[in-house]
Automatic annotation (TrEMBL):
Top-level lineage group: Bacteria
Protein species of origin: Halioxenophilus aromaticivorans
This protein's name: GNAT family N-acetyltransferase
CDD domains named among the record's database cross-references: NAT_SF
Domain N-acetyltransferase: from-to ranges: 9-145
PANTHER family recorded: FAMILY N-ACETYLTRANSFERASE, PUTATIVE (AFU_ORTHOLOGUE AFUA_6G03350)-RELATED
GO MF, one annotated term: acyltransferase activity, transferring groups other than amino-acyl groups
Highest classification ranks of the organism: Bacteria, Pseudomonadati, Pseudomonadota, Gammaproteobacteria, Alteromonadales
InterPro entries: Acetyltransferase_Butenolide, Acyl_CoA_acyltransferase, GNAT_dom
Amino acid sequence: MREPTIMKIDYKINHPVSADQFIELLNASTLGQRRPVDDYDCIAGMLANSNLIVSAWHGSQLVGIARSVTDFHYACYLSDLAVSAEHQRSGIGRQLQAVTQQQLGPKCKLILIAAPAANTYYEKLGYSHNPRCWVMDQPCGLEDG
């Protein structure tokens, strides 16, 4: 009987990720359906303005990412958690979250908005559901005078 192949995955903190690599990963995961993968400038801006990115690499291939915006003490918004479909169900998503949490202060909350299909995944990891999330797709204009 042949032994299963164990993949060596390297986890890196704030390691450079190009917009092309990020787009490729988003498209290889289910998250590409809900992100502006056709807007290169937006994707590049998402990466450039994140202050905590934990990435998972199989050799030189980006196979997972946890992209966050945080103050490191009170709140960390986990904006994107993506693992390529080929590498899902291997613990990469859990490890990306664990490494993210290791970078945060002891009282810092990890906050995210889950895709409907992922609700049971986050519940199993110990997240609690909070119905008080509000989203504004376009900023409100300020009225003159």
